[in-house]
Amino acid sequence: MNHQRLTDTRDGWNLRFRQAEQRHTGNRGELRITQHDESTGLTVESLFAAYDGISVVTWSATIRSDRRLPVESMSSLNVAVPLSAAGASVDDAEVFWADSTWAAENNWHRAPLRAMGVVDINTVVNPRVPGARFALRSRSAWSTGEHLPDGILQLNGEHPTALMWQIEHNGAWSWEIGEGVTGLQVMAGGPNCDDHQWSIVLEPGVDFTTVPASVAVCSGDWRGAVAEMTLHRRALRDERLGHNGQDRSSNTLVIYNDYMNTLFGDPTAEKEIPLIDAVGTLGVDVFCIDAGWYDSTDGDWWTSVGEWEPSTNRFGDEGLAALAERIRANGMELGLWLEPEVVGIHSPVAAALPEAAFFRRHGERVADDGRYHLDFRCPEVREHLDSTVDRLMRDLRPTFFKFDYNTVPGVGTEQDAATLGEGLLGHCRAYVDWLDSLKRRYPKLVIENCGSGAMRADYAMLQRLDLQSTSDQCDPLIYAAIAAGAPMGILPEQQGNWGYAQQHMGDEEAVLTLAAGVTGRLYLSGFVDRMDDRRLALVRSAIALHREVLETQDSSVPFWPLGLPDFTGEWLATGLLPAPGSEGRTGYMTVWRRAGEQTVTVEVPAGAEIIQVFPNPKDPCASDAKPWRVQRVDESHASLTTTSDSPSARVFALRLP
């Protein structure tokens, strides 16, 4: 019989309760429920965990069997949607999901669930589980390379209710919404056989634990669910920081990176020295030298990476170490780009490491675009990367790494695995274990998570790493849409939005690109050494405002004054408000006009005073970007009117009553 594969299964129905136990440690409570099926020998131990005061539950399950039992799919999370409590029917349900591809991340959509394939077959006269479902999945190890592992279901009934879920895994995943005889169910989990060529054979002594997935439930609409998930992500990250001996100090750093719309991976001493000296006048904390610092082949480094030794021909007789000292002499710390999981096919490392170090299929190493993918289950791989990081820390003393991930290995590896998907899952878990060990060895080291932009922006990675590159998008108008949607899936304090102002830009364009980072994490780039005093003053004013935002950012939650961001919309808006229970009385709002009408109406907290703070109307550094006109419509709405025909953006402070 056709049905949703994991929302309603015979194996699930056959499980019977055995025991339950509770415990509470710190700010986290746990409930474990054990079930067993006598006919198959299957035992399932389900773990439900929640942080105090947050309406989010994290689900995972461990399965074992006292006899041989092949398993091809296992959900992490399976929720019966509370239709009756919401006074709603399936016809009242809306689904929210996000597409994500290179340079077009965080593209959120909403639609009636019935319009997305979950058709009404009348289960009264057809009392069987329908086959219709709305489902998304990932491929390979770019966990956010096609869609986000997040979704929202909004029930527009008598008592509006919203659910939001996220899969906290850096590899293959799937989720689906299906209709059963009694209502809706949401399933989320890691790899399965149909989509990812994963399976496992249970037998005595062999068990399996699913990847974690979390679900938020709240009254009201999708915005409340996102706020709860934001609090959960923050608590999840705090717990991991504590395990690894770290704190939130990285949240206050302002970082300059020489890549985007600037050097594009072609650093030399001649280019870097004037940049370093100019950036040093801005008051930033870190100067990151992006890709290319290891290249001794005049640009042909893509297929030869892996040794991570400083270039012998790019930085003069004194080498990269002299540039590092110059960065520190200018009051900044050194950052370096690194891509730990790959080795170029022409790299000496490719010959030095054993075959078990690489992803393999059909008896051969897997090569993608001239690169091999390392398998972090292999001890020699971890030793190679440990020694690489140790050497760089000793010789160059960076305090910041940008870990990139531009090459994916496909469906998996046959090396030491019964199925290809099992090999990929094992590597993904081994990689985050290595990140934990690295963080424990260097607790003050700050690491940015990058994957060709945000192709791996999940909370297996982001509970461990400090900052997320939100895109490689070079066009500030498109970047506005990416930045507006980013807080749906990424903590504001981890949301690294490029601000790449240039001297040749007009005031409006320079303000627009800098505004993208003010309420997230302002990730600076651009030819600062070519800027005049007026443009430098504009960049400094953005940094100064950003530092004000950072003071309260990690006790804030995101909001959207124009509703769910429309990726192709003419107007976009996002902002921050004090989280429930915090003492803050100031929020912030960034609004972009990309085209169309010059006036828009935004929703703000009741009685909030709206003050333009970037560009500061009293500061002459952007005199051609005239202040927008703000007119109160009612207690919770205001109209904003631009003063320019060209695309523009403004940042406003919201003083709450």
Automatic annotation (TrEMBL):
Gene Ontology molecular-function annotations: alpha-galactosidase activity
One Pfam assignment: Melibiase
InterPro entries to which the protein is assigned, alphabetical: Aldolase_TIM, Alpga-gal_N_sf, GH, Glyco_hydro_36
GO biological process: carbohydrate catabolic process
Cross-referenced CDD domains: GH36
Descriptive protein name: Alpha-galactosidase
Organism: Bifidobacterium lemurum
